[in-house]
Structures are given as C-alpha cells and as structure tokens.
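User: Show me sequence and structure for the first protein, then do the same for the second.

Assistant: Starting with the first protein.
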Amino acid sequence: MHQTHHDTVLRGHGYHPLRVKQVVKESDDASSFVLDIPAELRTTFDYSPGQFCTLRVRIGGEDHFRSYSMSSTPGIDPDLTVTVKRVAGGLVSNWLLDHVTQGSLVQTAKPAGVFCPRDGAHPVIAFCGGSGITPVMSIIKHELAASRRSITLFYANRDPGSVIFDGALGALGRAHPERLAVRHHFDIDHGFAAPGDVSALVGDQLGADFYICGPGPFMDIVESTLLGLGVAPHRIFIERFGVEGQGEDAAGASPGEPDAREAPESRPPAAITVILGGRSTTVAYRPGDTVLETARRGGLRPPFSCEAGNCATCMAFLKEGSVRMRANNALTPDEVAQGWILTCQSLPTGQAVTVEYEAM
C-alpha cells in the first residue's frame, strides 16, 4: 500500500473534534447529542443505519473511549446524532451527560459497526432493552422509508420514565399504523422480560429478521428463546455493547483469556512492532497473546474498551504481516480489506507483524 494512501486511511480513522449543535433530553436518564459535521468531514462521517461512533473523552488526565450508536438515520435526519444513557457508576456516560452542552467539542471517530439492516422482504422483529433502542431506532426509520416491511418492536425498560424516544416512537406508530407495532414492557410492572414474552411476540413469524440490542442478560434470553423456537441463526442480528467501564455491565468471557478451542499458531513471531503516537516499539511476542495484550505487556497504553470485538475502539492498521481475528462484530468487510484489525481479537500469524494506531 502506498504511503500516501496509508496516511490518508489513518487520518480518516482518527479522532475529529465535532461541535455539539444541540443536546436533546430523551428521558429521565438519557440525552441525544446532535453533532455538526464540517463539510470537509462529511464523507468521513457517512454512515449506515445501526452503526456507532467511538468518542474519546479526557477525564482526570486520562483518555477514555466509549462507543455510542447513532439514533439518527442517513438520508432522513439532517444531522448525525448519538444518544447516551446514564449508567450507574459509568465514568464516561455520566461525564458526557453532566458536562457536554451545546457548543462543546467532542473527539469522535468515524462511524463503524455491522449491526445494519439486511435487504429483503421478511418482517422485522426487534427486541430492545434500555439504550439498546438507539441503533434499532435508526434501523426502524430506515425500513419505514426504504421498504414495505412490517416492523414489530418489543421495548423493555425499568419504568415509563426510562423510555428513550417515547414521543418519536409514538409519532412513527401513528404515521405507519399498518406497518409498525410497538410493545412496551416495564420491569416495575411485569418483572424482567422472560422467554414467554419473547415467544408470545414472535408467534409463528419464525422467518422474520430479528434484531436484538440491550443488556447482556436480556440479549441472552432473547437469543436462546429464538433459537429454541427454531429461528435460523442467520436471521438473528445482535449488537453487543462495549463496556462502560471495566467491570461495569461486562458481558462474555474475561478479557485476555485465550480460547482453548483454538489451535496454537504455527511458528509465531518472536516479536511484533507497534506504532503508537508516531513512536515505534518492538515487543517480544508470547504465543497465545493478542496484539493488544502484547502492546500492553510492552508498557504501551493503546486505546481499548470492550475487549470482546464489539466496539472497534482498539482498531489499528496492519502495516505488515498477517493476523487472525477471533471475533469481529465491529469492522465492515471493506475496512478489513483496507487492512484494519481489532487488536483485542488479533493473533499474529506472520513472522513479521507491524500494526499502527491512529494518531492520538
């Protein structure tokens, strides 16, 4: 890859200061941030329904990275908008909601993610919990405008005051009564959503496309119930949140644990080279470690968040060599083809491996 193209790709995936045009209070504990995209960055910030942006926030002298889905829909909403819900003990979500106002600058990476609508005529059934409505809201608006598909939404919240986009969902339902059906579920009245709630909503619509987003236990219940009903796995699309903070709302395996099901790599490299902040560091490689683990063991502090392959915060450019990603729920095929990798999921497979993070 030519150096000039490589530099352009890195700059495009860097963090850009975007000004907040407006802050919209969506519920008791959530707000939307409407971002002003300058003309020179409009191509960089093109996005698809259901994608997210990663924000870099400096708190207490340290950079923190969190990914938030767009609630806006390209071609329908005039401005790119991300929605943030307050999380108990959540360092970044609370800071954003307490400190970011109209006119603030927010360091924002270009949109990413693969939780996007698939083409087809099948009905759409979505299961959301809490702020899991955010990417689904973008998808719903897209499908209502671009297709004739029927859409059913199951939306679980603690109580009526926690409902994000309540007014907007009501307006969409009134505008498309024959195509959009919304069922609200309040834990305070009915307890947490259970398999019976999922089965009752699905009925015999096993051929629908299913979109799931919300807290980990909620998504696990929905997914296992759908599979138990006989829904084909390729019809189930899941967006798993990044972690708001280490130990907060974490889902999945413990970070950094090698997957025992994977065969060890043959002839692993003796070392890998990591370029961070323009500085090159060569770190001895320990077989079974990911690129991210290797960089951190070498004393570097690269960006990361979920460590599960879901948020794209740890993405870096593979300048040399090859890697195998255990999981990828964030990068598009085009980004992978360009050379981007999720370092938290990447096991080196080449003898000489060099990765470069975007300029911090």
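Switching to the second protein now.
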Amino acid sequence: MSSLPRRRWIAGAATFAALTAFAVVGAADALSSPTDRALNRALDRIVAAPNGPPGLSVLIRRGDQQELRRRGFADLERRRRPTGGQHMRLASVAKAYSGAVALTLVDRGRLSLSDTIGELLPGLLPKAKRVTLRQALGHTGGLPDYIRDPEFLEYLDENPRGYLRPRELVEYVRDDDLDFPPGARYKYSDTDNVIVGLMAQAAAGRPYEALLRRLVYRPLNLHDTSLPRTVRMPKPFLHGYDVAPGEAPEDVSKVINPALAWASGGIVSTPRDVSRFFRAYVGGRLFDGAVRAEQRAFLRGTSQPPGPGPNAAGLGLFRYSTRCGTVYGHTGSFPGYRMFGASTSGGRRSVVFSVNAQIVPGEGSPRVNKLIRRAQKLAVCYALGGR
C-alpha cells in the first residue's frame, strides 16, 4: 500500500549509533565506471544523512551478473546487514503482482479487459458498476481510495494489527461517488487493485492467493514470496523503522497488518524474488505480445511514491524514463519501507531498491527523499550500462 497512513510510535530505545556502510559487488570491474562511483557515493549519502534510513540494499542484474550494494543495517538490535534473501514488505509493488494475475487470465481467455465490476462483482460497488478491469488496472476508473476513508482510518487507528476481508475493505467506499467518470483521467487509488484481485477471483473461481501461487509463484520459482494475513514476517527479514527527528529509529515491522492492503499492497518477498519476478513479468514470460501491447498503452501518471525519471502509467506497470534508458516496474511504501523494482523490456537487466524507512514525499525528510530518488536513477543507469 503506497500511501497507508503513518503513525508515530514513541520509542524507548537507546540512543541510535552511527551506521557504517559497505558494498558487496559481484562484477570484477564494478569500481571502474563513473556511474558506479556516483552510485556508491549516493548510497553513502542516504544512510549518512540526518533522519535517513537505518539501511538499504540495491540488487542489480546485468545479464548473467548479479550484484548487491548494501549500506547500514537491516536489524539495528542485532546489527545485521541487508542481504538479497531477507523478506520485506513490498507495499504497492504488490500491484504489479495483481496485474500479473489478471493479465495472465486475460491471456488465457478467462477474463477480459472490458469486463466490468457490475458484471463480475454485482452489488459490490453500485456506483462503479461500469468501471472495467482495464480502468482498475490503469487507475483510470475514478474509484475512491478506501485508505483515505475516515471510518477506515478510525479502524486502522484502533486495530492496526486487525484483519478485514477484501470485500470489507471495498465496502468503506461502497456508497461514495466516483472521483470522475470512468476513463476520464488518471488517479492512483488503492481500491483499484483490491477490485482487480476480486475480479480475478470471480472470473477464475479460485481464491486470489491460490491464483498467485498457480500463475505467478510456481511458474517463476518464487519460493520466498507470500501474501500473509497477519503481521508475522518470515525469517530472516529486513526490519522496517520509523525515523523521526530527534528520536531513535523505532522498529515498526510488525505494527500494521499488510492484509489491510491485500492485493494492493500486502505481499512479502525478498530482493532476489522481486528481481526474478520483474524480469519475467516485464520480459513477457507470463502472457503474449498482444496482452503486453495492451499493458503498455501508457498514460501520463506517477507511481506512489514517484519512481526515477518521468513516470508513465500502464496496466499494473509503470514506465520510468531516465537519461540512460527506460525500465518498467513499480514502487511502493509502507510504514518502515520504501521499495522500487523494475526491469528492462527484454528482462535482461533489473534493479530492486529497498529502503527500511518510509521516506517519501510528504513523509520523512524531503532531502533524503531526493537522495533516494537520485540514487534510484543512478542504479538504473548502472544496470543499463550508462554513464
């Protein structure tokens, strides 16, 4: 869930110690290019900055070579470093996975991009019955965002570790008017991908979790990816922290139940699995060229939080254009986490950028937010071989 409201939890922890930084680099000539050195300096600045994250990792794939850059700590209490095998909350990066499920069903003829909410989910959102799967996937349906509903926020405040069924999430906006006529414009909404998951369930006659396993996890060998219903994190995991000025970072890894985001933001995975997913999803392993062409009819729209370079919105996918080239993927944030995963069109090169603090526009240090986005651009340039 990219924009789930953030709370401050007062920590009784000891004074935060200064972080040391280091990198694990797989390529023999990794320190030879200006882009490489600029990326290392950018990562150093993020963890050294006041109110920066305790740690971060960047997993970069360039053809057959894969390397991990890491800074700071994944776990402040045990002083453990980030790794490519630590579980993390993917937040809105999970929207790419619901896109993978839905578009695979479209490719197999079980679902159509023109199917409507009224047809597949009768009575669920009476004022949105004409909104299509295409519009929900592309954030052009005008569906109001349930995570901004006052009653949902009240529930979240009182039951941060609680569980609501997907239909219960959508019911918070059941009687709300659409934000605009379906198809009129772009507006990011977490309701969209909850609807996508429910439409996929209805069309396939199987639970969304079962569809993830059958259509995504198993074909792509994603052994460390799951959609939990509780705050439990598989071990080992990247701890997520709340970083507030003048306070020690507080571990908020298990404060809010990600199931309250479900298909919109509830997936837990590892950098290695995320890299494998995006290289396959973007590279065309899950559905054919006709569906990929539909997916890539990009509109002007920004992921939440913004990804590197100018952003454009497709169906369950964003395009990120940099001076070094273009990648396709998704971003997300959740209390304690900020994520970015993307791949080149052919699936040969990819970046997974993980930060263990929710530092995004409007939350956390504006300066660190800018440093993160700049480092993401440099990571893309390095992955693409640009200078």
